[in-house]
Structure formats: structure tokens, C-alpha cells
Design brief:
This protein has 151 residues and is of the alpha/beta class. The chain has 2 domains: 108 residues, P-loop containing nucleotide triphosphate hydrolases (Rossmann fold, 3-Layer(aba) Sandwich), CATH 3.40.50; 42 residues, no CATH class. It contains 7 helices and 5 strands; from the N terminus they run βαβαβαβαβααα. Strands 2-3-4-1-5 form a 5-stranded parallel β-sheet, sandwiched between helices. The protein is globular.
Length: 151
């Protein structure tokens, strides 16, 4: 479980890990109104088939989290490769059962403008950085990174 602070998003890091490890099935769902059924089905299918499943923004469906707790408790003999990743903003209403079973990671954006820009650049490969033949690309990328870090 990733407990998010403003500006932090672990999705790209998890996606990179999936690619690095060669995980064949990675399903992610951004939770919101009406996504409860899809999320439940994806977890159950993923548990049987060994998928990695990521539910983003769990804090948006606080009422459904009780059902999520029941779903996770009723998983009998999940595949050894199955992983359930959750992201949430800090929330006092999160079910205790899920919290107790989870490894909790607090993600924070780097402190300071320079560190934030460096983090953005670190997520770009040399191939992406040098792929555009336009000379304006690199300065525009810097301006966009600077803007993102400032916001």
C-alpha cells in the first residue's frame, strides 16, 4: 500500500518494475464512481491467474473498502505470483484489516526544485531524450520539468 502525499505517484515506478521483471499480466484501475465491480473482478481473476493488480486512489471509494477487505480475506490459495498494489491518500476510514495485512510505503516528492527536476529527468531514458531531432525539444523538456516541479 502506497500512502501518497501531494505530487507523488508510484505508478510509473511499479510499471517499470513490471517491465524489468517481465511480469506478463499487470492490470491497473483508477478507482472512482462505478469501478467497484471491475475492481473486484480484476482482483479475483488476478489472484487465480497470478497477475499484478494495482488499485489507484482507494481514498475515493472509502465505502467500498469494507468490501475490498472481505474480498482479500476470502482469497483462498492465490497464485504465488499474485500481487495487489494499492494507492491512497491518508485516510482515517481505511479498514484496519487491510492496513494490518499490508506493507505500507509513504511516497513523497523530492524536496526542492533541483531535486524534483532531477527526478523527472531520471525517469527519461537516453533514447527518449535524444529521440527528437528538433533542437527546441530539450529546452522545452527542461521548461516543462521546471513547471512541473514548481506546481
Amino acid at each position: 500500500m502506497f500512502i501518497l502525499s501531494p505530487g507523488a505517484d508510484p505508478f510509473n515506478d511499479i510499471n517499470n518494475l513490471v517491465e524489468k521483471l517481465g511480469i506478463s499480466k499487470f492490470k491497473y484501475i483508477a478507482l472512482g464512481q462505478g469501478m467497484e465491480g471491475k475492481a473486484a473482478n480484476t482482483i479475483e481473476s488476478g489472484a487465480m491467474r497470478g497477475w499484478w493488480v494495482m488499485l489507484q486512489n482507494c481514498h475515493l471509494l472509502v465505502k467500498w473498502l469494507k468490501k475490498l477487505e472481505i474480498i482479500t480475506e476470502n482469497l483462498t490459495k492465490p497464485d504465488k505470483a499474485f500481487r495487489l498494489w494499492l494507492t491512497t491518500a491518508p485516510n482515517d476510514s481505511f479498514p484496519l484489516g487491510i492496513l494490518q495485512k499490508s506493507i505500507k510505503v509513504v511516497t513523497e516528492p523530492p524536496d526542492g526544485l533541483a531535486q524534483n527536476i532531477k527526478q523527472t529527468y531520471s525517469k527519461l531514458s537516453d533514447e527518449v531524450f535524444n529521440s527528437c531531432p528538433k533542437k527546441e525539444f530539450k529546452p522545452m523538456l527542461y521548461v516543462l520539468s521546471f513547471f512541473h516541479a514548481t506546481i
